[in-house]
Amino acid sequence: VFSPAFTTPPHAFLEAHSGIKMLISPDAINPPDNNWLISPALFLGVNPTLNFWARSLTDNYGLERLKVLISTGSADPDNFTALHSSPWLNVPATWTHYEYDLAAYQNQSVRLAWQAVSNDAMALFVDDIEIRGTGGYVGNNDELAPPVKLCISPNPSRGDFTIRGIKGRYELKIYDIKGRKVHQSIQHESSKHQHPKLANGIYIVQIRQADSSHTAKLVICK
To answer: Any bridge partners for residue 94, and if so which?
Structure first.
């Protein structure tokens, strides 16, 4: 998962299709690529469809190549077949919508996969994956991690706010809506912050600890 606003320096020219994160498949050191994203088992229900958005970072080195695949068996790559007739999709260098009718697999349990097979290109991005079907569901027996009760208050703020719900030492970074870092500091436990120089607007607050990272939206309104 790639978040261009949180790189150093931030990639302000590159945006997810929606939100602040997207999936990335970078170019292999020894091409061609063979990167897989495989879904858990999905019961599709009736009239199922698959929608997602994808783009190449650039077309200067040739377009990224993507296969969209389906399996009615296990997650073994040999069990997947393509949902398209062409050997692969040549993905444009702008966000492009892809949609597949999965009616042939309705009321079946399947796995979907995206395989990057680019040949010495640059980077492939995928975002906003959506599988729809009446009566469909995802089977999941994974143990859930306890939720982080991160709270920023007041929010909206005039520049003074308190972060609660974090235990121990953490790194605090604040980014503006264009992905520019406007603050960075090391903090301890829940603490009060004073940022009178922040202009009105929407900011992304990032909190990093040794084994976790959390983000939240902060609104400054004076």
So the answer is: none
